[in-house]
Amino acid sequence: MKLPSATASVVLDTRREKADGSYPLKLRITYQRLRKYYSIGMDLTETTWKDVEDKAKTRRDLREVRERITDFEKRAERVIKAMETFSFNGFEGLYFRSEKEDARQAALRNDLAHAFTTHIKNLDAEGRRATAESYGNALSSLTSYRKRLKLSEITVDFLKGYEKHMILEGRSATTIGIYLRALRAIINQAIDQGVLTPKQYPFGKNRYQIPGGRNIKKALSLAEVEKLFHYPALPGSPEAKARDFWVFSYLCNGINLKDICRLKWKDIDEDRIVFIRAKTARSTKGKQKAIVAILIDPAREIIEKWGTREKDPESYVFPILSPGITPKRERELIQYMNKYLNKYMKRIATSLGIEKPVTTYYARHSFATIMKRSGAPIEFISESLGHNDLKTTDNYLDSFEDDTKREYAKALLNFR
Predict the structure, then answer these.
(1) Which residues neighbour 187 within 8 Å (Cβ) at sequence distance 6 or greater?
(2) Angle between helices 60-82 and 46-53 (to 10 degrees)
(3) How far apart are CA 44 and CA 48, in angstroms?
(4) N or C of the chain: less Cβ packing under 10 Å?
């Protein structure tokens, strides 16, 4: 015959009144007419306890007490259910070990370093190595300011103090903004997971606002682009390669270097390149929009000069990456290529008398600026750059046909 199971309930223990007129709430375990009581660290008056028992009363404070009581009872019930044979000693060992483990897990979830590290691992698993490194830098900066941070300690005062510290350290508003936007994302995750409450959110209007970096223009004039385009580099030289890749980016919608490296032959459709930015491929799932760049003759010539001879659809257009490499190795190769190109582009700019630190990123800004000056609508420029976060742009994205794009693409070589 199977013995009846033990039962668990939280009760008000009125055997001994406290100095303030309250009584302790206790977890009562009943088994075969035997009862034992365990403190749960809560005290209530008899009047409040009656209000708690009256489910018709829905004040917030009463609801919170009921939720805590339910948590204690459910945990006790889980322990009892897991026991093959019930005994009070066995229950106590399992229950209080479970309670300590719950407390440890709660502390871990509230640990800023743990939250960051978990998110960084997820980013690495998704192949988002650059973003993972950015979050790692943010974590290093925050923990160097204050060690062993809890998420619940991220308050408006903390953020103001951190910003002041960073400024005194000589860090730019751009860097501060990058780190704090990463922290804001972690805080949002903690609220979604119930680790923090919405009231603990420290960012936004009338709270703390993340500083914005000064927007430094990185565009060249059409005359400066013309100088770069016609720079007399020796065929096959590092300068020739750097110039050609920069020009290719400029002519193809300001495509960034990572997307150039990831281009495959299947992305080329006659006189068009159709691709999805690596930057948004994962972050905008369900809203991915392919970017269409018109492949005008100079861009096609650059592909012929530096592209791979093997034109299998799944092969990379340029021999920079290899199939099957890890996200970490991909990032290393792209970073090396970026440094290589920037090194020689700065040399070319200096020799041409262009007093700007010309980098690959200048090609993207120059594309947008020169398109704007040529009269192209801002909606067309946004579409060409792959900006999916402009709601006002979405109404126009489907309105530009390829013929229109070809006409605008011609403006990129108006100096000829």
Answers:
(1) 151, 154, 196, 201, 202, 203
(2) 80
(3) 6
(4) N
130 burial (CB, 10 Å; 0-12 / 13-18 / 19+) is middle
Answer yes or no: are the C-beta atoms of 251 and 299 closer than 8 Å: yes
Close Cβ partners of 277 (under 8 Å, ≥ 6 residues apart): 256, 259, 291, 386
Angle between helices 360-373 and 378-385 (to 10 degrees): 160
Place of tokens 């750059």: 385
**CB of 390 within 8 A of CB of 380?**
no
Strand order of the sheet with strand 34-44?
Answer: 7-12, 23-31, 34-44
Reduce the DSSP state of residue 29 to 3 states and report it. strand
314-360 per-position pLDDT tens digit: 999 999 999 888 888 998 999 999 999 999 999 999 999 998 889 99
d(CA 262, CA 97): 52
Dihedral, CA of residue 235, residue 237, residue 240 and residue 242, to nearest 10: 160
Structure tokens belonging to residue 104: 């440890």
Sequence length of the chain is: 416
CA 121 to chain centre: 12
Amino acid at 397: L
350-364 pLDDT per residue, tens: 999 998 889 998 998
Structure tokens at 181: 């936007």
- Cβ neighbors of 165 (< 8 A, separation 6 or more) are 145
Contact between residue 243 and residue 228 where contact means Cβ atoms under 8 Å apart: yes
What are residue 173's phi and psi, to 5 degrees? -60, -30
